[in-house]
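Sync notes, pocket subgroup
Present: LS, DG
LS reminded everyone that the earlier model was apo-only. Rerun requested with zinc ion included. Inputs:
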Amino acid sequence: MRPTTTGSAVPISGIHHITAIASDPQKNIDFYVGILCLRMVKKTVNFDDPGTYHFYFGDAAGSPGTILTFFPWPGAKRGTQGSGSVIATAFAVPVGSIDHWASRLSDLKVAIRGRGTRFGNKFIAFEDHDGMGLEVIETPGVEALPAWGLDPSVAIRGFHSATLSVRSCEATSRMLREGLGMVEQGSENGRQRFVTVDQAGAIGRVIDLLTEPDRAPSRLGAGVVHHIAVRASDDAHELALQRVLADTGYGVTEVRERFYFRSVYYRERGGVLFEIATDAPGFAIDEAADALGTNLKLPPQYEGARSRLEAHLPPVTIPSVRRTS
Ligand code: ZN
């Protein structure tokens, strides 16, 4: 039955976090802390599968718009970054830093997949140790944000964008506009760009859509994004977005308590799993800001199982940032 009532979306303010599957937990930390120089802001477990880790990497404070998270499954086989998934996760770096990133990534033996200019901004495409598609993109305005790990002239500040591959763009593009309140900025080389209405701040404002009718479907495994989460400013905003999406025929979940935020989930019609996550309460709820990521943190329902979980999870260490010449 066709929906008859539709509300209008209160626009999202950007990407909240992106979650992917990794293989080896230590290699995952070594790459994102040692090479990309993100801060590990939380070491916890998968709330739906507490026998596996859930790692969160981001800026110094773990701000929404900077958080890349992983479920590391030791021994996981590589998946396929295919249609119906986020095929590239892009980080925002200061204008003028792309040459530094080219030499840093090549010095550290990272696989470079391409380099160019997109919508006027220089970028490098590369892969992590599991083959996950990553980019750094020069992003005007990010130089003013706090830096972590590397010199402020080059350090990653958070997300620039996510690129989604879909076989047909109409339903996805409509969901981004009418469900999440984004606006289409334009197209370049078959890439449709959607941006948030609110352009305050420089990070996480962009979702790019690639229409690739012949691309193989996504298959979950190491190196593949599981879902992308967008930002609700508070619980009322999340409920309003949930209602608009439900009214337009999406199967949206109930609100789930994720301890660091509250979430609802839905799969958009191009196949990409979306989440709406609240900005609050954030990662300092169970750890001091200067100690983020140093200890295994468990939500209350798993505290009683701490010793059993700790005995089962492989030990990991947080490396120092790798220096290059
Ligand atoms: Zn999530």
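DG: Residues 17, 19, 227, 229, 275 surround zinc ion (CB under 6 Å).
LS: The CA atoms of residues 167 and 212 lie 5 Å apart.
Action: DG to write up.
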